[in-house]
Design a protein that fits this description.
alpha/beta, 4-stranded mixed beta sheet, 2,3-Dihydroxybiphenyl 1,2-Dioxygenase, domain 1, 17% helix, single chain
């Protein structure tokens, strides 16, 4: 009786992944989050599958706002805690324009437009659920 040798894979099947197709933000306050991403940031509504799942087109990707349900029975992230950080890339002059618009809309900036030593101009702020958002440009 011969011993069977386990198959050793030389590459991961996940190496076939070429892009992030969509990102889901689990929300606490859908009304405030929708107003923020759609009205304030001006993201284009892609589709609304239900009041608990709304998708926006952001460049070549989809950003979905969702209330946890089928696959995630997790308790909501406590208020005051960020669940994620999203970074949105723009041109260098647009960083300042975005900062001005956020301030005009009453959004507090965590960090004003700042040139970083690693070659980015960054701007940080939070969405209504407390997630950390960044607008940046390569400089």
């Amino acid at each position: 009786m011969s011993e069977q040798t386990p198959l050793h894979r030389t590459t991961s099947p996940f190496s076939a992944i070429r892009a992030i197709d969509y990102t889901v933000i689990f929300v606490r306050d859908m009304v405030a989050m929708r107003r923020f991403y759609q009205d304030l940031l001006g993201f284009s509504l892609l589709r609304e599958l239900s009041p608990n799942w709304i998708e926006y087109r952001v460049g070549g990707n989809t950003l979905a706002l969702a209330r946890p349900s089928r696959t995630a029975g997790d308790t909501p992230t406590p208020s005051g805690s960020a669940s994620l950080q999203l970074a949105f890339k723009v041109s260098a002059p647009e960083v300042e324009l975005c900062a001005d618009e956020l301030v005009r809309q009453g959004v507090a900036l965590l960090s004003p437009p700042t040139d970083q030593p690693f070659g980015h101009r960054t701007l940080f702020f939070r969405d209504p659920d407390g997630n950390l958002l960044e607008v940046f440009a390569e400089i």
